[in-house]
Here is the input.
Amino acid sequence: MTSPALHAEEQHTPAPTTGADRTTGTTPAAGTAPTAGPTPAAGTARRLGVGLGWRSEIDTVVERQPGLDWVEVVAENICAGHLPESLRILLDRGLTVVPHGVGLGLGGADRPDPARLARLAGTAGALGSPLVTEHLAFVRAGGLEAGHLLPVPRSRDALRVIAENVRIAQDQLPVPLALENIAAQLAWPDDELTEGQFLAELVERTGVRLLIDVANLHTNRVNLGVDPAAELDRLPLEALAYVHVAGGTMVDGVWHDTHAHPVTEPVLEVLAELCARTAPPGVLLERDAAFPPPAELAAELDAIRRVLDGGGTR
Amino acid sequence: MTGPLTGSGPDTDAARARLAARQAGLLAALVAGGPVPPGFDPAQVRAQATGLAAKRRDTAAKVAPALPRLLGTRYGPLFLAYARSHPQTGGYRADARAFAAWALAEGEGLDADARTALARWLDPAPERPPGPLARLRRVLRPGRDA
Here is the structure.
């Protein structure tokens, strides 16, 4: 994760949008439409298809991935005024680019920082993005930076605060916001709701959309004993914007959601569980480090497509 | 859902203060050696704290790759020792510089070459390399991390 403080002082200059048409397109990308499972929820979610996390280390690999429908960028790594050439190429090709924030801390006690929100809004504008995404997490408190996404206490008291934070963010952003479930390594004694219930409450109160990370659901199954299927049942999947898939590794009985290891079978099984309930508008593979050869990423994307097509996890 | 939907009132300040205290308490335990707040599983808090320190070490190495290159195997243990007593308050570049300054001033087991290299990284030499006193002054001068 990058530090938002690295960029907080940078000028954000919303560049002319190069892809206004991309914000309205709803035509499914050929070849990746799920053929099994329920119909797409509500039909309101924009169809994204199968995507890959754009990272500067693998920019040309991403550019050359066959059949890629869209990419996601870590919002804090992008400056609206000077987009990386690689993203320009992808935008010119008509790919959707979605900014994924890690530093807003919408689950924090403070109202969202207007400068950070303005920066995210500017990035979404420069990329012509149809939505932006963040996390149900806090990242700073008491003057300290966590450098990581930490779980919020899921109490009804905290819910009031976080719902207000979400509404403030929505007011300042030019496009819809979706919130992601996180991989937690600890549980709060304050918890009155599961993460799924808490997100459902936020959807109900704010209309925020959902980014569901199936690897995070798997992480919480291993580390905290949370049943992914039960959590999926609690989530209002009609609000689903897209899904994250990522690899990790088990060390001493603890699952580490590293984004630096191959995607494993149990994670794809959670994806299949989700696909049994709804046809996700988009799925995105996250790989942040220890980048494998391009063919390995392509194979992981194909494995995801097979799950979407109802062909199982093999 | 359990319970009624009580919409957020216009005034969430009291709830914000309660949430701020809870989150600050946990974060202090995770990154600043604070006590584990009541009710948490200490093993979970320890595991998360270890993970945060390792991530911080690796991220600082990523934004300042010269540091692990200059320090070799000393980088990891030194950074974790630094992190234990210096919680992160800003960005990773500032963190990497603060670590280098700390390692120069207090890092144990650094040979002369490593110290020279660190000092040079912190303050790239102009035409003529400054003497040891000037280097030390620069390193100790606050506000150079921005």
User: Anything to note?
Assistant: Residues 156-172 of chain A form the longest helix (17 residues). The first strand of chain A starts at residue 49 and ends at 53. Residues 49 and 185 of chain A are 30 Å apart (CA to CA). DSSP finds nine helices and twelve strands in chain A.
